[in-house]
Amino acid sequence: MAMGEIKELPKSWAMLGGDGPESYTQNSSYQKGVVDASMEMVDDGIMEKLDLKSLGFESTNDTFRIADFGCSVGPNTFFAVENIMKAVEHKHHAQFNNSAPLSGFQVFFNDVTTNDFNTLFKALHSNEKYFSAGVPGTFFGRLLPRSTLHFAHSSYCLHWLSKVPTEVLDSESPAWNKGSIQCDGLKKEVTKAYSAQFQSDMSTFLEARGQEIVGGGLMVIITGGLPDGVLMSQAGIGMYYDLLGSCLIDMAELGVISEEQLDSFNLPLYYSSSKEIEEIIKANGNFSIERMDSLSHNIWKTSRETKIKVSVTGGRAVFQGLLEDHFGREVAEKTFENFETKLDENFSIIDGAAHEHIDHFILLKRNVN
């Protein structure tokens, strides 16, 4: 891409595909840790809140249907799905003592159309326990027939917005986010624009899932967030994104990219508080909140070297495609080269941040109409 050419941010984006050394498949250990940390909560939720009798499984050997929204390219989606199935089987045995055995499971794997579904299904081992299907398309809308699902799952997806708010890219707007690539919480107008987009997206997601999930069915949402009252700029994750942005600012100052290109790039991410999420769910009205909690992640208990490696390789797997699309491959490659150096030099500041982001765990139950 020629310097100065400004490209609109895409409406959807996928993690780095394939199974090579820089792929999301090989560099999603943080997201895997989130899935691992949630397993016990998922088990408890199914045992305590899923009533298979009210769903009709006492009188029929119907297929139990699961969907993972935002599955990416694996393998984390498989770990999550298999854990859900084991918990459902355990609950079925406890509730019916195998008097009406399940006929099996059907699993829908959903992500955007640009997701590498070939790599996903290549990694799917032959498994007689469930039938699988890919469902390409944005989850900010209906994807399945009404009352299809008994259990929905979405891990580490909903802090991604459907789009960057238009106001933050408009130089005439009070919400113009010049000088930053993220919603750092320091400018009220920017935060308001991002928060409104998150509210709209989350409401749309809940409305669509409300139509697809049967009454009494469950949904687990795991998403990145912030403690109530904490700004993104005060959290280590916000400093991480600022450091990534500083690499782009350096290239603009050197003339590698134009100032216009820089100002037209913002990350489509919003880390919400639990209070914001709770208000959106209650306003939607389709679900009852059965549990809201935060997850404890073991990745931050590892060595400095491991943290830096995960931060760089994981960041590349997540953001490489977005940067390439906006700035071109050469700039994206250089960004991560410089980022690794800067992260090594500044890691003690990020690691010692007064606050850290949290990973929200939310268990919802579809209201029976």
UniProtKB/TrEMBL annotation:
InterPro entries: MeTrfase_7, MeTrfase_capping, SAM-dependent_MTases_sf
Pfam families assigned to the protein according to its UniProt record, in alphabetical order: Methyltransf_7 (PF03492)
Gene3D superfamilies, A to Z: Methyltransferase, alpha-helical capping domain, Vaccinia Virus protein VP39
Domain of life of the source: Eukaryota
Biological process (GO), any one: methylation
SUPFAM superfamilies for the chain: S-adenosyl-L-methionine-dependent methyltransferases (SSF53335)
Keyword terms, alphabetized: Magnesium, Metal-binding, Methyltransferase, Transferase
GO terms for MF: metal ion binding; methyltransferase activity
PANTHER family: S-ADENOSYL-L-METHIONINE:CARBOXYL METHYLTRANSFERASE FAMILY PROTEIN (PTHR31009)
Record-given protein name: S-adenosylmethionine-dependent methyltransferase At5g38100
Phylogenetic classification of the source organism: Eukaryota, Viridiplantae, Streptophyta, Embryophyta, Tracheophyta
